[in-house]
Amino acid sequence: MSTQSGTADPMQKHAHRRREAGEEGRKAPSVLHLSESDTPGGAPRAGYRVHRAFVEEGMDSRMLVGEKHSGDPTVEEHRPGSAPARLADRLRGKANRWTARLSDPERWNVHYTGWLGRLDPGQVNRREVDMVHLQWFHGSFASVRALGALRKPVVWTLHDMWAFCGTEHYAPDGPGARWRVGYTPESRDDSEKGWDVKRWTWKRKQRHWRRPMHIVTPSRWLGACVRESALMGDWPVRVIPYALDLQTYRPHDQTEARRALGLPPDVPLVLFGAVGGGRNPRKGWDLLEPALAPLAASVPGVEGIVFGQEAPDERPDYGMPVHYMGYLDDHHTLARLYSAADLMAVPSRQDNLPQTGLEAQACGCPVVAFDTAGMPDVLEDGETGKLAEPFSSEDLARAMTWVLEDPQRLGRLREASRRRAEERWSPETVARQYRELYEEILQRQGKAGL
What we know:
Mean pLDDT: 90
Strand content: 5-15%
Order of helices and strands: HHEHEEHHEHEHHEHEHEHEEHEHEHEHHH
Shape: globular
Low-confidence stretches: 1-24
Number of helices: 17
Largest sheet: 7 strands, parallel
């Protein structure tokens, strides 16, 4: 949710009324979330939404981040104050980026070593909170060593694979994947030369993370990866989905939404969105692109919409008109865009629980994706969209056609999509699952009676 909507007074008043009325029946555990930032980006935003779900349900929840982009008073920024401290922090960031670049010179931005960080774990350990909840890290906020030095009970929501990998936020998940076998020299890809930064990072995690943390994954696929990993295979794991602000992400009148966004009023519209998605092979734009012409041949008048990136200087012939919306960080505008579309395409090769798919369904927009990784947790096949055979562009086109070709079926898919969002991703539902987990952990540690 956006800062403006996420910190709305009515939500906090609602939570206050619940506490006044005694609906909770007992004091909820207090929690401090740690994350690189609160927004922007999918993973930081997902962590922030977990925190906001707690606040909206009346829990004592705070968030401590390295970079604060919201105006939320429940989020604190941990930034160096003095000039020497700021210089040291810049040097830490450069050191982290330099070592990460050695992992993959072409795509270093998806790697992170966690070598150096400014977070003092002692300050966190002295906080008067029951739980520390880790979210997402990718800068110079928290080091591997600092995370291992936390002494409070720790829950960690994984938004990608970095926690149990070396430097990779996403990595191959085949039988011989390095995170499965322990980053041995023998498991290294023959194309990689020089210092094995991935193994160095993984070994540091193994050395510093000796006390098991309680892992939460938003998808069953990522939970299975944790259980099969060499680093965290014997750590406790639970699957809890992301939370969505269902007041912001809600269906809007499609005609009005299209008019407001300058989109054609009476043609089928297919939506694709990811920050820089066209340049990221994992997001699968190259798999969606060949499916557009067959879709256009099957569904007369269909057009496309792309957000999260600017229009290319030279546009290929997609077989249909494509409207580029650029980067959108206003969540109310995003909700209108999802409502304007008839279908959201999420053609990822590998993804945890992409929030575009959740947001789309909350706005009554069905989703089509490949039947892989966390995507079966995003949509219900045949009920709120369609899963295609990985990684067939032809079957992707057939799945999109199936959604769009029957107006009555499309109407049923729209209704079921919103219903699924209300059942699974409401802040109340997600916060309750986390609260139950917290209480189980604290009871096991002799802190019952909260």
